[in-house]
Amino acid sequence: MLHISLYFIALVSLSTSPNWAKLNHMSSATLGFYRLAGASLLLFLYMLLTKKLKKINFDRNFVWALFSGFFFFLHLWTYKYASKHTLVSNTMILFATNPVWATLGGQVFFKEYIKPRVIYSYMLALIGVFMLVAQNLQLTPENHLGNVAALVSAFFYALYMLTSKKARLHMANNDFSLIQYSTCALMFGIAVLSTDAPMTGFDAISWWSVLGLIIFPTFLGHMSFTYLVKHMNLGLMSCGKLIEPIIATIFAYFLFNEHLGNNAIYAFILTGVSVLILFWPTINKRANMHE
After folding, report:
1. Which of 126, 209, 258, 269 could form a disulfide with 252, with the two C-beta atoms 3.0–4.6 Å apart?
2. What's the pLDDT tens digit per position in 237-250?
């Protein structure tokens, strides 16, 4: 039950990402650099002060952590590209294919068994996300590159999860996260230099949003996820992540007064049922223990 609780904390934290990004006035590359470089620095200082900083072994686990950081960067970069070159609704529904790739990868590389309830839950959640964005969904030629980027981003996210699990099987989460975030920050730094994006002159709200992105989506979100990949099924984790757009939409409604749409309530109900199906065995087992 502890893992399930941490999983939902991670989902809620990840769901705040679009809202923090909306408050920020930096370029995508600059924001990505400050977010990941800041996370790397804070994690390094924490490990140094708590004497958890160890000598890094340059073995295959280190290589998997590097790959994870690289795929994390590619996922974030292509997702941002998709957001700018197609509608948000297109990006959300096309990115929702990521559980398919993560599930297939989990079967091939980790021999994970996919239970029927995970498939049922995925279909309900996908329908829920589709209902949420259906009014604005447009598959027109001018959105083609953005749509492709959203699909590619889903694939890179699955690769990020798979390589994370591969490294985490034999590596502590702190060590892994430090390598992953540093790699991703380096890639964003190269992107900043190649695009000549500004690095200074931003308002206070932009810096506060960077801090928010570090604390919530990065530490409480992604770092919790990389902890959990060692203990949970990848298909289940990726499928549950489909409720993230729903939570993000609720946050946007209260913070920015964004319109929910006519089908929002039905989308919320479907995704809620999908989560209940997904985690029912654990919830039921916990309930029986207290009878």
Report:
1. 258
2. 888 777 877 787 77
Which residues contact residue 6 at a Cβ distance below 8 angstroms, ignoring those fewer than 6 apart? 224, 227, 228
* Residue whose pair of structure tokens reads 């801090």 in the numeric block: 211
Handedness of CA 166, 172, 177, 183 (dihedral sign): negative
- Residue 290 one-letter amino acid: H
- Please say whether the beta carbons of 40 and 182 come within 8 A: yes
Furthest-apart CA pair in the chain: how many Å?
A: 62
Q: Is residue 45 exposed (0-12), middle (13-18) or buried (19+ Cβ within 10 Å)?
A: exposed
> What stretches of the chain show up as alpha helix (H) in DSSP?
2-15, 17-23, 28-49, 60-85, 88-95, 98-110, 116-133, 144-168, 173-195, 204-213, 224-228, 234-240, 244-256, 264-289
> Between vectors from CA 269 to CA 263 and to CA 245, what angle results, nearest 5°?
70
Residue 209 tokens, joined: 């949003």
Cα 114 from chain centroid (whole Å): 21
CA nearest neighbour of 175 among 67, 47, 63: 47
Q: Which residues contact 41 (CB under 8 A, 6 or more apart)?
A: none
Pick left, alpha or beta for residue 7 (phi over 0 → left; psi -120 to 50 → alpha; otherwise beta).
alpha
Question: Could you give the CA distance from residue 2 to residue 6 in angstroms, rounded to a whole number?
Answer: 6
The residue written with tokens 């690769």 in the block is 159
Angle of helix 144-168 relative to helix 60-85, nearest 10 degrees, comes to 160
Give the tens place of pLDDT for each residue, 150-193.
889 999 999 999 999 999 999 999 999 999 999 999 999 999 99
Residues 16 and 252 sit within 8 Å (Cβ to Cβ): no
- Looking up tokens 């609704």, which residue turns up? 89
